[in-house]
Amino acid sequence: MVGDVKRLKQKLHSKKFATAYQRHLRDDTTLNEVPASERDILKYIPPLEGHVYGITREEPKAGYVKLTENNLEDVLPYFNQLLLYRILRLLYGPPDILSAYASPSAGTCSPVDWGFSFSVQPDLIAEVRNKFTSRVYFSYWAPAGPVTPDTQERRDEGMAKCLTDLKETVEKNLHLWDEKEELRDRTGRFGLVNVPAEKYKGGELLLLRARESDRRPLKRAFEYGETQPLLSVGHLYLSAATMFFVAFESFVNLLYRLLLRKEFRSGTYERLTVRSDLDLRLVSMHVFCHGFQSQTVQPNSDLWLRMIQLRDFRNDVVHGNITEEHKCHSLQEDGFMFFYLPASDYRGRRRDSVPKSLSRFQSNVNEDTVRVTKQTVDDLREAILGAMDSETRTWVASWLWHPIIPVDDSERL
To answer: Contacts from 143-146 at CB under 8 Å and sequence distance 24+?
Structure first.
C-alpha cells in the first residue's frame, strides 16, 4: 500500500530515548544527482518520467565512517516501518530527507528516503534510515582512523545499549499502530503476495532436496521380535508433491479473489464460490468470475479425473486419513501363511484403486509422485489460462511468476 501518512493524533508513552540520545543534525542535507561512482544504486530505484533522483551524502557527519549496519526487520521484535517512523517523528520532529525525486520543470520535490540520526557518545552517531522505500537500517558511525581497545569497548557497549533502548521504546509505543484503524479508509495502490508462485517455488526446492538425499535403506531380514525402525525417504517427496498441489489450489483461490464478479461477493454466495469444493470452484470459474470465455476443465475429461485423484491424494495426506493402503493382511491358503500389503502388492482390477505414483504409503512416495503431481498442476494452470479471454490472460501472465501482484483497481480486491 502506498498512501499518505496519517496525522499523528496519539502521544508517546515513553520519551526516554530522545532524552538519552539527542538529535544529531546532519552536516549536509543537500540533494545531489547520484554520482557516477554510486550509479549501481539506481537499479533499485524505479525511473520517474520528468524527474531526477537525488541523494544526500551517506555519512551523517563529515569524516565519519560506518562501523556496523543492521536491517531493523531482523533485530526489532515488533518491526513495522510506519510505526517506527511515527515514534521517531514524535521524538525528534521532521526527518532528514535523504533522497527524493525532483522535477526541474515543475520545481517540485517528492521525498523518497528518510532518516533520523542521534548522538550515542561524543564520537559515536547512530542513524535509522529508510533505503529504497522498503528497508529500514540501523547504522553506527564514528571518526575514521585507528582506535584503542578501551575506545572500542566503550563504543561496543554504547551500540548494544542504544539498540536495546530502541527496542524498549518501540515496545512501549505499540499503541501508535492499529491495523484495523489504519486500513479502514485506505487509499493508494495495493499489491498481493503471489502465494501460488511462492508455493510452486517451494515445491521445486523440496524436490531438489529430495533428489539430493534420496538414500534408501537396504532391504534385509529382521530378527524375530526385532522392532522395525521407521525408515523413509519419502517425506521430502511427499512435501514437494503437497506443495505443488497447494500452489494450484492457491492459484484458484487467488483468481476468485481478483476476478469474482461483484454480484457474487456477498456472504450469501460463499458456499457456491470461494468456500465451495475445489473441483466445483474450478468448473464454475467461468460463471462466477470475470475474464473467462469458456469452461476451464470439462467434467469427466482425462484432466478432470487426474485432478480428482490429486485432490483425494492431497486430502488423505494433509488430514492423515487411514486408507486401505495402510492395512497389512495375513491370509492362509493350503496351510501356508501369506502376507498382503495393498501399498505395494497388486490389488486386482479395482476401479477405485489409486495410481501407484499417488500412493499414500510414505515409503512408496518417490520422484514419480512429484512428477505426476507437478504435471497435473501445470496442465490445470494452462487450462485455466486457455479459458480466459486474451486481455485477462495477458494480465495474469504479466505477474504469474512475480513475488508481488500489483493491483491498481481496488475493485479487484
So the answer is: 143/63, 143/64, 143/65, 144/63, 144/64, 144/65
